[in-house]
Amino acid sequence: MNLVEATGLVKHFHTGHGAVQAIDGVDIAVREGETLGIVGESGCGKSTLGRLLTGLLPPDRGSVRLLGEECAGQSRRALRRIRPLVQVVFQNPYSSLNPRRTVGRTLLEPLAVHRIGTPRDRAARVAAMLERVGLSPAAAARYPHEFSGGQRQRIAIARAMMLEPRLILCDEAVSALDVSVQAQILNLLAEMKREFGLSYVFISHDLSVVRHIADRIAVMYLGRIVEVADRQRIWSEPRHPYTRALIASVPRPRPGRPKPAPVLHDDLPSPIDPPSGCRFRTRCPVATPSCAGQAPVLEKMGADHACACFHA
Amino acid sequence: MAEADPFLKRFGRNRPAAIGAVLLLAVTAGGLLAPMLSAPDPWAMVARPFLWPGSDPRFPLGTDMLGRDLLAGILHGARVSLLVGLIATAAAAFVGISIGALAGYYGGRIDNLLMRLTELFQIVPPFILAVVLVVILEPSVGTIILAIAAISWPQLARLTRAEVLSIREREYVEAAVSVGMSDRRIIFREILPNAAPPLLVSTSLAVATSILLESSLSFLGLGDPNVMSWGTMVGAGREVLRSAWYVCAVPGVAILVTVLAINLVGEGLNDALDPKRRRR
């Protein structure tokens, strides 16, 4: 069953220079119990997609169904009731915790907002959750600035877990951490998933991290999904030229070997005025004049594999 | 470190802030105990005019050109200054912070509407606006407070709006939204506490400015004719500035000390409230 089902999502941001087409026609589903990885360069709309899927941002068009219930177009009050099902862990562990609140207060807040349990009960839950994420219950009395980045990310995970959600959005959740700490946090996320039957939407620009944790991977380019497949498949037989380029750019630990030539040139085109037809055609090694016409849509390429390219 | 009141401790360790607090307490005590510490009526002519400070132990600050006790004037004037400063600032802070927070948090049309309203108050030179308001409404303590509050809130509104705009985008606010907190709770629990240091400093400065404004209005003869105020005293003394400068200087120093004390306390509060400085 699909936990979240989004169809025809469009989100444009209006700026002084024109509308930024952050998300332009995306269909995606998150299945119960899976980790969906979303990868792409910065500016491709990953974070916007994450916020649309979790109801933090209303879409301009399209629908987001959470456990069969439509979220798009709902009032803030109505959304508040379904919000506990979906929680978020953000990238920057230094700005995702209120610096003026003790860790305990921050973790209590979700329970207080939804009037769950008695005060004593809540304190016990906070202590248990702190232990579960590998911190001492005494941490509740301290302030965020007294913790390291990795510890703060554990606190952020604990906060996300307080309401027993079904889905957690991890928006670049380990990108700001040291590599050794990244591994610890990824392991913690994996343990939590097993223990509580969670699903994740895991957003990252780092393909090797997503490969490690995701069951299914969606590749985004300039506001659209260009390829989606399960982890093995996307790694072993990528179909979209952009996916191939991304995989080729992942550094491999082979000292002494000459570095491969960079596969992608130039920067991402402006999302205010994206290329016509296939948005990747301006940087694509296999583009033909026909790519400038119609935009390619995601087409099935076998079980659990879809790709939006005329030449795939 | 002892458990008891770390906030007071941090505040006390800050030497300038502690000095400011002591001075402010002294001014407050002087105002409260005015009738006991000196003549009950500061308007009463009690001695020979132009007694220089220190020349008569019964009138340590001397007397003015009408033979009124300057000490009594200073002590009674403290009441007016503090009253006007605190109430006008409280009103300005309430209006300014509410409007700024709403404009910054909701943005869009609400922001536009509220900020145009704020600018309406800012396009008139503030002191002129205060003078006009007091003249139209007849000088009294109440109208002076109203006039000062009316010209003080726009600045606080703009500052609050700017702070809220930047804090609203922080990830912990987004986390609060995803937890399901109401807008009101987010504004009061997540955003305003983090906007507190600049607002607090600005508000304490506004108290000082209000005291100065009240003195300026009184100096121009727009004070409440029934109460003795520091500004009135300076205004009265300016005619004899060359022969008896102390008549202006004594209330002038009172204004200076009070305003300075409030600024020191404001700075101290700012430092003491910042959790990043706690473990020092």
From TrEMBL, chain A:
Taxonomic placement: Bacteria, Pseudomonadati, Pseudomonadota, Alphaproteobacteria, Rhodobacterales
SUPFAM superfamilies: P-loop containing nucleoside triphosphate hydrolases (SSF52540)
GO molecular function, one term: ATP binding
Keywords noted in UniProt: ATP-binding, Nucleotide-binding, Transport
Membrane topology: Peripheral membrane protein
UniProt protein name: ATP-binding cassette domain-containing protein
Intracellular or extracellular location(s): Cell inner membrane
Cross-referenced Gene3D superfamilies: P-loop containing nucleotide triphosphate hydrolases
Automatic annotation (TrEMBL), chain B:
Superkingdom of the organism of origin: Bacteria
Transmembrane segments: 17-37, 80-106, 127-151, 199-222, 243-265
Topology in the lipid bilayer: Multi-pass membrane protein
InterPro entries: BP-dependent_transpt_permease, MetI-like, MetI-like_sf
Primary subcellular site in the record, as a coarse category: membrane
Stretches assigned to the ABC transmembrane type-1 domain: 78-266
Keyword hit for Protein transport: yes
One Pfam family hit: BPD_transp_1
Subcellular location: Cell membrane
Keywords, comma-separated and alphabetical: Cell membrane, Membrane, Peptide transport, Protein transport, Transmembrane, Transmembrane helix, Transport
UniProt family annotation: Belongs to the binding-protein-dependent transport system permease family.
Official protein name in the record: ABC transporter permease
Source organism of the structure: Paralimibaculum aggregatum
Highest classification ranks of the organism: Bacteria, Pseudomonadati, Pseudomonadota, Alphaproteobacteria, Rhodobacterales
